[in-house]
Amino acid sequence: GQLATGLLMNQTLTEFEIPFVKLSGLKVDLSPDWIERKEAETPDPTGFDPTPNPVQWTIRDLDLSDSVFTLSGYDGREGRAALPRIEFDGALSLAKLQFAGGRLTSPEPLEIALSQIAVGAPEAQFASAETLRATVNKVESLIEEQTISSISLVGVEVFHTDETFAPFRRVDEAASENTTAEETAGMPWSIESLQIDEGVYVMRETTFGTKPAPRIETTVAGTLRDLRFWGEVGFASEEDSELRISQTRLWAPGVA
């Protein structure tokens, strides 16, 4: 990867400013082992003065581009998160980011762009998308309120078979075994608006229980609003949404 940056500071060393940060060409595997190592390297705050640190950091013109991220190994066991394998090219831009008093804040929206998204193992891919664009009003809205203002998906394709859906079943079983009542009572994540632009859904070679499911091919588009999931709500929405299904083809179970 490549990094370009700079550093400014005041005479009392209480204010630091990074005028720009340019990151590109990163290849990051966000595995559980990597996360655990980073947590182990974080200093233990026990015994430190609890008085808030007076130092303020400001980062301007944060730009990340041409980078590839992979999430794998999240099987829900040993307290880990439960997620299928996900790979994507990532980019983000932010005009100003501040850290002071133990809080990250930003006066302007954060824009995140993902492309070439793949969900599932390469040999049994469940879903893909050309691009995902997300907007967050402020960084603190994402961190403290777990709220995403908008998500736009383009070029979504879902290929649902018993083989491609198997990781989700394993993840769900592992999460159920390791989830406590305290964990399910947390704050839910919220998406204020989710727009799907002409997605494709295919289901074939699938069984529900022990019975074969019909084969389905259809296109899906629409806008979903006020989506709240996980935490104590499970899943909820109180706003009207629009979902358009077209060019649908249906075959009886067992028909190729």
Describe the 3D structure.
The chain has helices spanning 32-41, 139-144, 162-178, 181-184; strands at 2-5, 8-9, 15-18, 21-24, 27-29, 56-71, 86-100, 103-105, 110-121, 124-136, 147-148, 150-154, 157-160, 189-203, 207-208, 211-212, 215-230, 234-236, 242-251. Helix 1 links the parallel strand 5 (27-29) and strand 6. The strands form 2 sheets. It has a 17-stranded mixed β-sheet that branches. The protein has 256 residues and is mainly β. The relative contact order is 0.10. The chain is 14% helix and 53% strand. Mean pLDDT is 82; it is low at 42-51.
Task: Provide tags for this entry.
elongated, mainly beta, 256 residues, two-stranded antiparallel ribbon, 53% strand, 17-stranded mixed beta sheet, 14% helix
Residues in helix, %: 10-25%
Q: Which spans of ≥5 residues are poorly predicted at pLDDT below 50?
A: 42-51
Broad structural category = mainly beta
Termini gap? 47 Å
The strand count comes to 19
Which series of helices and strands comes N to C?
EEEEEHEEEEEHEEEHHEEEEEE
H/I helix tally: 4
- Gross morphology is elongated
Question: How much beta, percentage-wise?
Answer: over 45%
Main sheet specs? 17 strands, mixed
In round numbers, the mean pLDDT is 82
C-alpha Rg, in Å?
A: 22 Å
Give a topology summary.
Blueprint: E1 2-5, E2 8-9, E3 15-18, E4 21-24, E5 27-29, H1 32-41, E6 56-71, E7 86-100, E8 103-105, E9 110-121, E10 124-136, H2 139-144, E11 147-148, E12 150-154, E13 157-160, H3 162-178, H4 181-184, E14 189-203, E15 207-208, E16 211-212, E17 215-230, E18 234-236, E19 242-251
Parallel strand pairs: 3-6, 4-6, 5-6, 11-14, 12-14, 13-14
Antiparallel strand pairs: 1-4, 2-3, 6-7, 7-8, 7-9, 9-10, 10-12, 10-13, 14-17, 15-16, 17-18, 17-19
